[in-house]
Amino acid sequence: MAYKRHIDRLPIIPADAKVQNAVCHYCIVGCGYKAYTWPINRQGGTDPSQNVFGVDLSEQQPQDTEAWYAPSMYNIVKQDGRDVQLVIKPDVNCVVNSGLGSVRGARMAENHPSTVTGTQGHRLTDPLTWRYGSYQQTSWEDAFDLVARVTARVVMDGSEDDLIVSMFDHGGSGGGYENTWGTGKLYFESMKVKNVRIHNRPAYNSEVHATRDMGVGELNNAYEDAELTDTLVAWGCNPLECQTNYFLNHWVPNLQGMTSDKKAELLPDEPQEPAKIIFIDPRRNVSVNAAEQAAGPDNVLHLPINSGTDLALANAIFTHIVEQGWHDQDFIDAHTLREAAEHPAEFPAKGASDAYPGLLTSFEDAVEANRMSLEEAAEICGVPADDIRKAAEWMAEPKEGGARRRMMIGYEKGIIWGNDNYRTNGAIVNISLATRNIGQLGGGCVRMGGHQEGYFRPSEGHVGRPAAYVDQLIIDGKGGVHHIWACNHYRTTLNATEFKRIYNHRTNMVKEAMDSVAGQGRDALVDAIVGAIAEGGLFAVNVDIIQNEMGSQAHVVLPAAQQGEMNLTSMNGERRMRLAEKYMDPPGHAMPDCLIAAGIARHMERVLSETGNSDYAANFQGYDWKNEEDAFRDGYQSAHPDVTYERLRAMGTNGFQEPPQGLDGETIIGTDRLYKDGKFSTDDGLARFMAGPWRGLVTPGKQEESESYTFLINNGRSNLNWQNWFLDQENEFVTDRWPYPFIEMNPEDMAENSIEPGDLVEIFNGNGATQAIAYPTETATRGETFMLFGSPRGTQGNIVSKGVNELVIPVYKQTWADIRKIADVPEAARHISFKSKEFRF
Amino acid sequence: MTKCNRLIDAGRRQFLRGGMMATAGAAVTTLAGTQEAKAQAALARVDYPASRLGNIGELTENEPLDVSYPDDDSPGVLLKLGHAVEGGAGPDGDIVGFSVLCPHKGWYLGYNADDRTFNCPGHYSRFDAEAGGQQVWGHATSNLPQFNLRVDDDGEIYAEGVDELIFGRLSNTL
Questions:
Q1: Of A69, A131, A363, A558, which one has the fewest beta carbons inside 10 Å?
Q2: Are the C-beta atoms of A11 and B22 separated by less than 8 Å?
Q3: Is-contact A790 A492, C-beta < 8 A?
Q4: SS in 3 state form for A237-293?
Q5: CA separation for the pair A109, A568 (Å, rounded)
Q6: Domain ranges of chain B
Q7: CA torsion through residues A612, A613, A618, A621, sign
Q8: What is B52-162's CATH number, 3.20.20.140, 1.20.200.10, 2.102.10.10, 2.30.38.10?
Q9: By the CB < 8 Å criterion, does B7 face chain A?
Q10: Which CATH architecture group holds A18-111?
């Protein structure tokens, strides 16, 4: 039977409850919420004068009411040391979500730790250290001292290259401007660490080098553009599940024709119709179905291309658009590079170097290099040429009367974690540039995004490009100390079977060394650790909010605060920056990451000074932060003095769109769209086109893998759970629905392999093995599956090969494996629904 | 089963799950993780009316019968599924009742008889009538509120409780 909370009444928010700005800390959309807190011994009443809504709560409230909250939006938490009642509910006045809550964000309250209600009891409250053969709580000073002594010793005996760092680079929880600055200052200013990687990939690199190299920052439009455009293109993304309220609140209204008034007002001189939409994805995801419901099937075009063939498709569309003369020559002449770049010796097979796998050049040069007929693309992509032609028409054919068609492309992990990332990304931007759909109302060529953003760090130039393949360094026995910030490679890296095997071995060597000198004091402990490192061991320091699998191999674990437990600034997918306020205490002794970084720095300075390295010690000064606002001032605010906590607080959940342009009184003036003036992010302000013809599956080993195994194991997120489930793994509503990761399979494929709905299956190839429960999916293409990634009970990364592209970007999406049944439906999954995820009225 | 026993049963389930039980201003504590257990307060659930919603004779298999519970402002349906389900009432264990306000934003759900799901036209959420109202896919943060049903010897169907908070009310009984 489905999980039920058996809660039939909630305390009413009193009229005088404290109200603070909250932003959903999960996905990039950053929906606005309000956090209400009030004392434990009080509650509001049903009379309008007694509740914060000013309405009669003794009556049933209507659809879409503001005056209701679900049990998941309520909790009892600590605030300034006292138990208070907390409600976090969607903010109807936030322009991002207009009161819509997602199934993730609307559980923020429930996903905070509470000693009263027992939620999130796995949150770390104290630093832990490996002592007496297990993890023991210790003080911050003790933990910092051990981290600093070992780190300083290893760096001084060797070099900073012996320190490997895995750290977030994003906004929202486990990130934000305060925390990227704190960690960035430590590793990129006080030190110059180059063996560093990001939470979801094995190197410190951009996911979208190409668009940046072309001069087009990847978050260049406003969410409003989705309401104004003529054609929406979802390329390798699944917006209903992964950017839910962006899709529901800005895409769907246009598909339904509900934004006609806004179009008439802002774009009065051209004909307007409800938007059409194109999906490019090997899988028919739920967004396709929702779009068909909203727009009618005739206005939805889904191109279920063969995995990894996006580049051929994009080049064919680009070619057709130009052949039809639908490009904007005046714009190209005025705002893009007009001279063709010299062709490197090995072009078109390669770019000038691994750092530039395509060629940044002129429009004409790109057209010539990328030329691909509709028929050729149809053969490669496995979709009809007429559908590719139709896509090109929907993207660029002028409207009645000759008006330019407005078209917006959103792309994400299907491109980013796909074949030939650099060229494909560039080929997509080519289409938007050629049709003048950057910097225009109803335009944009944008990442849909994962987390919010919140990056402010000293230059990472020393890291190099291509950046070091850090996972491979660890596997190869390199590095002596590993600092980890809000990352769990055990669930979210590639080649995970091998990585875990080696990582367990190397960290266990250090654990055994620590065990061997129990009770002999700090110097003996440090000597033993350093000795084990010399033998190939790895000393790991894990900073996180929970004890995850990485922490379970670490030697020091440091407890971090998350959003809501500290003040945190981030920006969303339209660069909308908000201050998410602190409305509760972090659990126990947990601290914001920026202050943990400061603590490590201070102890590094002390230990280095004590050991006679005063010059190097001086690098670690400048961390006298008492709170996260000090870190914000030292970092982000130093570059943008107008952007203060006070002003952000006053600007609520709408904030402003970065970059800031100055002040109007106390209001920060933002930037609704980038490149409105046609000046792009290059030295000369001219955008580049990308010459990068199709060259097959370029990731080493992928073509062979595709020929060796039966099933494509496509993979990604689901609506319900966020990222690697760090909080959701303790959320019963989530684990009730997905006790195991699902793998969507065509029912005929299941029958051929004697697999029943819910059966536990093993997915295996030469890279490793993992497990999932089979979810029958009629719309799944034969031989193609989709597995939920990041699950604690079946890591998809186990079967992803180590192959990366030239820029060390992983290719998770292209994995092939075989599947066999290993058990009947597990007890935990016996009650769950296996019906279609597609809405059917 | 008396009402009192049901409450104890509900409390036990709650305890074993380590989940949250919020009541009117009071808090019930469970053991979870490494945290210390606090004194357990008495469960305080609302008093539900025992309302007659219909008779088995009025039900046709797989055709929802409109009802309301716990009062006229809370629309729901009764369904005879034709096969026993967990939580099903009646001699065949196949009668279920649900609120039809989507627990996401309160839109009226439509019933799809083909695959026996409730579907929300607002934001595409759907709930499985045969799996206790489990959200098959969607935005609601709870599964669909289900009515506790009792069927007497005459086939009269009574509702006597609800297992989740109904949309649009902060107390299931107003």
A1: A131
A2: yes
A3: yes
A4: CCHHHHCHHHHHHHHHHHHCCCCHHHHHHHCCCCCCCCCEEEEECCCCCHHHHHHHH
A5: 17
A6: 52-162
A7: negative
A8: 2.102.10.10
A9: no
A10: Sandwich (2.60)
At A823 the three-state DSSP class reads strand
Domain boundaries of chain A, sorted by first residue: 18-111, 128-194+466-571+585-630, 209-449, 702-829
pLDDT at A827 over 80: yes
Asked if B22 and A117 come within 8 Å (Cβ–Cβ), the reply is yes
pTM for this one? 0.95
Q: Give me the active site residues of B, please.
A: 104, 123
Tell me the mean pLDDT in the region A615-632.
98
Q: Closest Cα partner for A259 from A240, A277, A276, A272?
A: A272
Residue with tokens 């601290």: A591
> Which residue has tokens 């003369």?
A325
pLDDT band at B44 (very low <50, low <70, confident <90, very high): low
Q: pLDDT at position B8, please?
A: 34
Q: Per-residue pLDDT for B2 more than 80?
A: no
Q: Which member of A75, A737, A837 has the closest CB to residue B20?
A: A75
Closest CA of chain B from A516, distance in Å: 28
Is the CB of B45 inside 8 Å of chain A's CB atoms?
A: yes
Which 3 state secondary structure label does DSSP give A474?
helix
Rounded Cα distance, A199 and A608, in Å: 29
pLDDT interval class at A337 (50, 70, 90): very high
Sorted by sequence, the CB contacts under 8 Å of residue A794 that are 6+ apart come out as: A740, A741, A770, A771, A772, A787
Query: What are the tokens at A84?
Result: 């208070």
Give B113-143 pLDDT, tens digit per residue.
999 999 999 999 999 999 999 999 999 999 9
Q: Which two tokens stand for residue A309?
A: 């063939």
Strands (E), A356-405: 359-361
How much is the pLDDT for A174? 84
Going from the C-alpha of A773 to that of each of A673, A730, B16, the distances in angstroms are 44, 19, 25
Q: Does A110 touch chain B (CB under 8 A)?
A: yes
Is A59 in contact with B174 (Cβ distance < 8 A)?
Answer: yes
Which residue's structure tokens are 């609302």?
Answer: B46
The pLDDT assigned to A1 comes to: 82
Third-level CATH fold of A702-829: Barwin-like endoglucanases (2.40.40)
Q: What is the pLDDT of residues A41-72, one digit of tens each?
A: 999 999 999 999 999 999 999 999 999 999 99
Distance between A112 CA and the closest CA of chain B, angstroms? 12
B9: nearest CA partner in chain A: A6
Segment A92-121 shows an average pLDDT of 97
A118 closest CB neighbour out of B20, B132, B142: B20
User: A128-194+466-571+585-630: what CATH class?
Assistant: alpha beta
> What are A339-360's pLDDT values in tens digits?
999 999 999 999 999 999 999 9
- Please count the residue pairs, one from chain A and one from chain B, whose beta carbons lie less than 8 angstroms apart: 237
Q: Which residues of A touch B115 (CB under 8 A)?
A: 835-836, 840
Position A296 pLDDT exceeds 60: yes
Buried b (16+ CB within 10 A) or exposed e, B11-26: beebbebbbbbbbeeb
Structure tokens at A444: 């944009």
Task: Give domain A209-449's CATH number out of 3.40.50.720, 2.40.110.10, 3.40.228.10, 3.30.540.10.
Answer: 3.40.228.10
pLDDT in tens, A435-454: 999 999 999 999 999 999 99
pLDDT of residue A593: 98
